[in-house]
Structures are given as structure tokens and as C-alpha cells.
Amino acid sequence: LNMQTVEEAELCFPQLLNSSCKRTLQHPYVYLTIHLALSFISVLTVFLNLLVIISICCFKKLHNPTNIFLLSLAISDCIVGFLISFQIAQIDDCWYLGDIICVLYVILDYVITTSSIGTMVLISVDRYVAICYPLYYPTKVTAERARICVSLFWMCSILYNCVLFRDNLQHPGRYNSCSGECLVFLDYFGGVFDLLSSFICPVTVIIILYARVFVVVVSQARSMKSHVAAVSIQGSVTITAKKSEIKAAITLGIVVVVFLVCTCPYFCVSLISEDDAVSASSVPFLLFYLNSTFNPLIYALFYPWFRKSLKLIFTLKAIKQIVTFNILHPGSSKANIL
Predict the structure, then answer these.
(1) Residue 102 in contact with residue 172, Cβ under 8 Å?
(2) 66 CB contacts (<8 Å, ≥6 apart)?
(3) How many whole angstroms separate alpha carbon 163 and alpha carbon 179?
(4) In the chain, N or C: fewer CB atoms in 10 Å?
């Protein structure tokens, strides 16, 4: 009787002795640590991205093309924060929500992460045009075009992933080896195409564009220093130029390195894996989620307007405006936040 009780405790569904998956039994302290860590990441991700969303939505002066891309990125990353709760629910490697919810969860996860990567590409294109072709930027890159690009990319992302996982949608749970498992399957050609379109191509575009931006920024900083030397102006101007060059190098380096560190493990595992099955509880998924936590720090905290809007939020001025409906008045949303 004791042996039978122990065996049942190791199953996801004890009532299904012959078909249930086995739970991953962990020490209570390990279980608690993982649970607290994932909960912290989830709350932090949602909180940071909500700050970006509130800041951009509340002030019309922030409705420029770059911030529209940042808003799209923050929305996708905020949803990722909520998706982490599914990881918390299956710490013991058991899926209790059914096969249909499993497929929908994985597809939503792919849609969100694809949209996040795509938005990063749009941001890199935006910065490339702004820095390399500043005279064309105001006319070629407008807020309306930015909204259209974001909307089209989200719709294409949903359609693309539904087609990619169409077999899993038609036959949910078909590839599960036991009850309590959440597994989806991509055929060889689908996996290769997804790898190219979701990782290799976007990463290539981002690296090339940011490398070009970096070269132009450094060149402009050196030209400024040469100009300073020519007109014999001493002191603060030279220091400012030097700081600008260093800041540009550090910022662009952080953007590329953090993105690659957070995304490479998942796609590398998918590339070298002997089978094409993708587990919804794998460690690379968790690291991939962390990129959504870092994005608001990398893309938003470097902007002065974000720090200024944070002061309004944390001093409850923005909340007071919302509660009293002052934010709906024509003048309130036009406050000078820049």
C-alpha cells in the first residue's frame, strides 16, 4: 500500500496509472526557490512594461514613430510576463490545462515572441534612418506609417504561427507521449523556415543596421571633436562629445549582446536537437522570457522622457489625472513631457 501511494504521488494524474506522465519531484526548498524566482520575474516584467505603456499612452507628445515601436514592444513583453505564470504552474513538469489550451498557449507564446523580435527589427530600422538619413526621417518615417507597420506585423505574426502549427491545432495532444505533457511538433521544413525567419534573418538585420549606426555615431563624434579642435574651443564641449561617443558604444553593445544572450540558447537548442519536439517547460524558454524583462530597461530607461514620466507616476500625479478624468481633457495629454 505504501509503495502504491508513493508511485501515485509521482504521477501527474494518479487516477491514470497506465497513461499518466511522471512528476518531477523536487526538494521543497528548490520548489519554493523556483516558484519565487519565476513569480518575481513575472511581476517585474509586467510592472516595467506597464510603466512604458502608461507613459506613452498618457502623453500625446510621446506619440512619435520610435515610441510607437516601443509601445508595441512593451505590450508584447507585458503579455510575456503573464505567460510566465504558465511556467509557474508546471514546475513539476505536469500540464493540467488540457491539450487544446497547451497548443493555444504555445502558439500565443510564439506570436508574442515573434512580434517582440520583429518590433526590435522595426526599432533598428527606425534608428538607422534617423541617424544615417536625418533629412529624410521626418517625411519618410511618420507616426501613421509606424502604426500601420506595427499592425501589419502583429497580424502577419498571428497568421504565420497559426499556419506553422496548423497540424497541432487540428490534432491537439497528438504528439504527447503521456497524459500531463505539453508538446508541440514542427516538421523539418517548418522548423528550418521558422529558424530562418524568426532568428537568423532578424538577428542579421539588427546586427548590420546597428553596426552601421555605430559607425556613423562614432564618425560624427570624431568630426565634432575635430571641429572643436579647429575652432579652439576648450573644456565641456570636448568632454560632451567624448561622453556621447562612449554612451553610444555602450548602449548599442548592450542592445545587441543582451538580445543574443537571451535568444541564442533557445534557437541553438532547436537547431541541434535530435527531434523537432518543443517542450513548453524547457529552460531556453525561460531565458527567452528574460529578454522581455530587460527590454524596458534597455530601450526605455535611456530616454529622459521616461524618467520624467516615472516621476509623475510615482508621485501619483498621473494616477490622479486618470481618476479625476483630467487625462481626458484636451490639454492634459499635451503636457510637455519631453
Answers:
(1) yes
(2) 123, 126, 127, 130
(3) 26
(4) N
Cell, residue 133: 538619413
CB 51 within 8 A of CB 16: no
- Residue spans per domain, the chain: 28-334
Q: Record the cell numbers describing residue 119, joined without a space.
A: 518590433
Residues 6 or more apart whose CB falls under 8 angstroms from that of 190 comprise: 164
Q: How far apart are CA 27 and CA 33, in angstroms?
A: 10
- Over residues 40-73, the pLDDT tens digits come to 989 999 999 998 898 888 877 888 888 898 899 8
How many Å apart are CA 221 and CA 131, to the nearest integer?
A: 12
The number of angstroms, rounded, from the C-alpha of 149 to the middle of its chain's C-alpha atoms is 18
pLDDT of residue 225: 65
* Close Cβ partners of 217 (under 8 Å, ≥ 6 residues apart): 131, 244, 245, 248, 249, 252
Q: What is the spatial distance between Cα 165 and Cα 214, in angstroms, rounded to a whole number?
A: 38
Do the beta carbons of residue 257 and residue 283 sit within 8 Å?
A: no
Burial class (CB in 10 A: 0-12, 13-18, 19+), 106: buried
3-state class (DSSP) for residue 277 = strand
What is the tens place of the pLDDT at every residue in 75-103? Answer: 998 998 888 888 887 777 788 888 898 89
What is the rounded CA–CA span in Å between residue 26 and residue 32?
10
CB 303 within 8 A of CB 322: no
Helices (H), the chain: 2-9, 28-58, 65-89, 99-132, 137-140, 143-164, 166-170, 188-195, 201-230, 236-272, 283-295, 304-314, 317-323
| CB-based contact 114:193 (threshold 8 Å) | no
Nine cell digits for residue 206 = 539588427
- Report which secondary-structure segment, H or E, holds 279: strand 277-279
Q: How is domain 28-334 classified at the architecture level of CATH? A: Up-down Bundle (1.20)
DSSP designation for 330: T
| Amino acid sitting at position 98 | G
pTM exceeds 0.90, yes or no:
no
Alpha-carbon span 338 to 308, nearest angstrom: 8
